[in-house]
Structure formats: structure tokens, C-alpha cells
Design goal:
- The protein has about 325 residues and is α+β, with helices and mostly antiparallel strands.
- The chain has a domain of about 200 residues: Chemotaxis protein chec.
- The chain contains 11 helices and 10 strands.
- The strands form 2 sheets. Strands 1-5-6-3-2-4 form a 6-stranded antiparallel β-sheet. A 4-stranded antiparallel β-sheet has the order 7-8-9-10, with no helix packed on it.
- Strand 8 and strand 9 form a beta hairpin.
- Helix 3 runs antiparallel to helix 7.
- It is elongated.
């Protein structure tokens, strides 16, 4: 289970007790050295390590950023989404923790088995609906009287956000999420057995002046095939570059040797005004910056390669290579 975090009031009370002499710091150190017994509840089995929970948190921090951008563009109002907590709890506890009437979206995660739940607090869901329908983003909780049109609009909005979920999970698994159900009563959902461990990712969400939570429930059966990829070792390891075989280098060289390359010979350049360009007529002469006795430059893809001399061969224009143009860094000696 996660370590208990003291509130600011508890920290202040502890410091006050130490300074007044009500508590002895040496006695506290002695108690820390003694063996402590930790209670373990088998009904609340912890099937994910802290390392794996941190990996899931990193994935959904990225997802929260993507979701913030997506909803900001769709709703055209201030949106901020951030990860509040990531916990592993029994499925039954998750169902009891959410409102009796709320907005539930059930997604499949092919090719992973099982399904996940997105629970949108009604305050958030109706603020989104109000913005889409042209309102200011006010939240009016009428979840029990949700019309078919409102349900369809909400479903389409949530379904279009699946690209962000797919992108966030791409670092550990290629998934193809699909919206399967839209529900308002959590009692009708029996995703897994009540004692099955699920990971619940809670997202703090602000839409305009409305705020609430988005809860993502991920059963253990969904994450089981990719659990090894949630370790820190997987995130930190780097794949060694594959060494090419000599035959591959030979094939690459042969293919490059027969590749077609466009060569260009630059006759010269000049600069004129737009007015002069528009007034150009037949027999007008343009003075180039190239002297007739100087060699021309042959280029390939804007790269200067050779100095050349123009001429003819078999009644066709041709050039004769005079000298290679040395390239490289001008700072090199």
C-alpha cells in the first residue's frame, strides 16, 4: 500500500510537539529502529509494484496533456487536465466511490483483453455539452433526464479523444481503443469480479469555471500482457543498433552507383526589379555577372561540384570538366 502522506496541519502539530518537549526525538528514532508489523489485507491485493504504478502515471500524464489540447480545441475555452492520483483498489471499491448517476464510457483496448471505464463527473460532462451547443460552459446536472441527442453528442466527443489515448499508450503497446457502451448507472456495469484489482487514474479537470474529476478504471486483466513493459528497466533500456552485413553494404553501394542524378550548369546570375521584369520584351539584353572567359559551374542539388567549359559534341550542347571544386568547412586548415 502507498505510504501515508502527512497533511500540513499534521506536520505543524508534530513540529510544535517536538519544540515544546511533549515528544522526544530520540524516542522516535528508537521506535523507527524497532521492527514494524505491516497489516496486509488479502481482499485488497496489491498486484502492481510502485515502479509499475509510476510508469502508468507517466503514461497518463502524457495523456492528460494531449487531452487538454484536444478539449481546448473542441470546446474553445480554458481547459486544464492533470493527474491527481494513481491507485490500485478492488473493483467494488471503485464502483462505490463514484456517483450513483454519472457519465460512463466503456472502451475496448484491442488487442489487449478486457475493457476499461472512463467516468466523467456530471459537472464536467455537462459543461462540455453546454460549450458544444453554444453555451458558456455552465454545468447543470440532469443526468437522469439525459436525452438521446445529448447522449449521442457526448459519445461522439469522447470517441474522438481516443486518438490521444492511443498515442499516449504507444510507448508500451499498440492499441486500437473503441467505444463500446455509454452508461449512466454504474450498478449496471460488471466489468470484472468485485474483488479484482483495478488501477484507477484520477484526473483533475477544469472546463471554464466548472471543475470535477475524470476517473479511468483499468482492470488487471487488461494490463497483464504488458506488465513487463511497465518496469523502469524497460523504459531505460536502449536497443543496440543492428550491425549491417558486408553483403548489405555491397548492395547499398551498387544501388547508389546506378541512381540517377540531375546535373545543372549555371550560365550566370543577375538582379533586376519587378518593374523591369514585367516590362521585358523581345530582343532585350540582360547583363549576367559571368565573364565570357571565366569557367562555368556545374551543380547537383544546389551543391557546386566542378568548373566546366561549354562547347558542342555531335551537334549537342556539352561541357568539359576543368577542375573539381573543393568543398568542406572553410574553418578547416
Amino acid at each position: 500500500m502507498p505510504d501515508e502522506v502527512l497533511s500540513q496541519n499534521e506536520i505543524d502539530a508534530l513540529l510544535s510537539a517536538l519544540s515544546s518537549g511533549e515528544m522526544d526525538a530520540n524516542q522516535l528514532k528508537q521506535e523507527e529502529k524497532e521492527k514494524k508489523v505491516r497489516v496486509y489485507d488479502f481482499k485488497r491485493a496489491l498486484r502492481f509494484s510502485k515502479d509499475q504504478i509510476r510508469s502508468i502515471s507517466r503514461i497518463h500524464e502524457n495523456f492528460a496533456r494531449l487531452l487538454t489540447t484536444y478539449f481546448s480545441a473542441q470546446l474553445r475555452t480554458y481547459v486544464h487536465i492533470s493527474v491527481a492520483s494513481v491507485d490500485q483498489i478492488p473493483y467494488e471499491e471503485f464502483i462505490r466511490s463514484i456517483p450513483t448517476m454519472t457519465v460512463l464510457n466503456i472502451f475496448s483496448m484491442a488487442p489487449l483483453e478486457g475493457r476499461i471505464i472512463f467516468e466523467f463527473n456530471p459537472n464536467i460532462a455537462y459543461a462540455m455539452l453546454d460549450r458544444i451547443l453554444g453555451g458558456k460552459g455552465n454545468s447543470v446536472n440532469k443526468i437522469e433526464n439525459l436525452t438521446e441527442i445529448e447522449s449521442t453528442i457526448m459519445s461522439q466527443l469522447f470517441e474522438k479523444s481516443l486518438d490521444n489515448l492511443q498515442e499516449a499508450w504507444s510507448s508500451v503497446a499498440e492499441i486500437d481503443p473503441l467505444l463500446e457502451e455509454f452508461e449512466v448507472n454504474p450498478q449496471f456495469l460488471q466489468l470484472v469480479s468485485p474483488n479484482e484489482t483495478v488501477v484507477v487514474v484520477s484526473l483533475n479537470t477544469t472546463i471554464g469555471e466548472s471543475s470535477g474529476m475524470i476517473n479511468i478504471c483499468i482492470p488487471h486483466v487488461v494490463l497483464e500482457p504488458i506488465i513487463p513493459k511497465l518496469s523502469a528497466h524497460y523504459w531505460m533500456q536502449t536497443e543496440k543498433p543492428k550491425e549491417r552485413k558486408p553483403q548489405e553494404y555491397d548492395n547499398l553501394t551498387k544501388n547508389l552507383e546506378v541512381a540517377k542524378l540531375d546535373l545543372q550548369v549555371l550560365l550566370g546570375k543577375t538582379t533586376i526589379s519587378v518593374e523591369d521584369l514585367l516590362n521585358l520584351q523581345k530582343d532585350d539584353i540582360l547583363h549576367l555577372n559571368q565573364a565570357i572567359e571565366d569557367p562555368l559551374i556545374m551543380q547537383a542539388d544546389q551543391e557546386e561540384l566542378f568548373y566546366v567549359q561549354p562547347g558542342k559534341k555531335k551537334n549537342k550542347l556539352a561541357v568539359q570538366i576543368l577542375e573539381e571544386i573543393k568543398g568542406g568547412n572553410p574553418n578547416d586548415e
